[in-house]
Amino acid sequence: MEKDKLSTRLVSILQCLNNGERFSLEELAQEFNVSIRTIQRDLHERLAFIPIKKESGKYFLEGYVLGKLSFKDIQNFAILSGIGRLYPSLDKEFLNNLLNEKINKAFLIKTKSYETLDREVFEELSAAIIAKYPISFHYKEKCRKANPYKLINIDHIWYLLADENNTLKTFAFSKITQLRVKKKKFLPQKKSF
Description:
Mean pLDDT: 86
Helix content: 25-40%
Distance between the termini: 48 Å
Number of helices: 7
Order of helices and strands: HHHEEHHHHEEEEE
Strand content: 15-25%
Structural class: alpha+beta
């Protein structure tokens, strides 16, 4: 019965978030007749995989998850993906022009081709990095065990930066096969990178 209440509460919270609603801890605690600590546990532990944001005491879902991208989201994407310097500016006016279908016909960008990535493996590896879970995988026909730190893109090629036997190494992402993630946290080395 207790699990049913938990499931119902989490589903209800997810629906509120997905509808773009904002709420305080107190409001949810009162609505579900539970303690504020329980709601905190729901948001910070049970729903930790969701990008929930807090502003002025209210919790809500990041706009990009709801399909609403802000100019700041677009700027961040351009910077993170390394194309920020491709344009003379990333201010609001320039981005408006760039996203305007009539104006952006004036641009043509040709780049080298990118490698094809396995999205499922990429996301699984990203999640292991964030959670600090060790991994095992095959690389050049050898079984490896490592603590993953970062996915790095250099000249259109993705690499995994990981600690294997106390040595920091890079592995070409496209050569990683049979990835397995252990659900046990590792402690990153202080001098890792």
